[in-house]
Amino acid sequence: MHEYDRLPVSQVGDARGGIRVLLLDYGGVCTPSTREFLAAQDQDGCPSLVAAQDATRPECRSVVARARAAGICVAIISNEIDRSWAASVPLLAEVDHVIACSDNGLLKPDRRAYQRALMVTGSSADQVLFVDDEPENVAGARAVGIEALLFDVDRAGDCWAEIADRVIGP
């Protein structure tokens, strides 16, 4: 799915609590963090090849599908996504927008990165729930008026349940 293939946020259904856009960090939220990958190394000290092929958290894929089915715009914003490999990541084809901050050098937590996300999604700050595993990125989003959740990688399942409840309900 490409960002131009979807309806503007103003034309999608109203979500629980007024949230119309779910804005997700990629590494650490949608996929395991570097620390989690290192902890899952095999006996030779190499990350699992299976994990490297498509490391999307199962809860992420489920919530993304449910949110989109409910008319919620789902976008991923990341400082690390590189267009050279992004096409090979299945999850990135399942969301409405992929905002690669490295494209223009406006990296989170710079407020302009979040303003760009608002522009790309056609939304206002009060329509967005942002989720990131880095406290400074959560603070950056809050500084521009976006509701933001700090994702705890040690409680990933619980965090995804909270995201689902806040965006689409139980």
Break the fold down into its secondary structure elements and pairings.
Layout (H helix, E strand, L loop, with lengths): L20 E5 L8 H6 L9 H5 L4 H12 L3 E6 L4 H4 L3 H5 L2 E4 L10 H11 L6 E5 L2 H9 L3 E4 L5 H12 L3
Parallel strand pairs: 1-2, 1-4, 2-3, 4-5
Helix pairs in contact: 3-8
Detailed description of the structure:
Helix 3 runs parallel beside helix 8. Strands 3-2-1-4-5 form a 5-stranded parallel sheet. It has a single domain, classed as 3-Layer(aba) Sandwich (Rossmann fold), CATH 3.40.50. It has 170 residues and is an alpha/beta fold. It has 8 helices and 5 strands.
Q: What fraction strand?
A: 5-15%
Under CATH, the topology can be stated as Rossmann fold
Give the CATH class.
Alpha Beta
**Total domains:** 1
Q: Name the quaternary structure.
A: single chain
How is this structure best summarized?
By secondary structure, the chain is an alpha/beta fold. Helices cover 38% and strands 14% of the residues. The chain has a five-stranded parallel beta sheet.
Key structural traits:
38% helix, 170 residues, Rossmann fold, alpha/beta, disordered N terminus, single chain, five-stranded parallel sheet
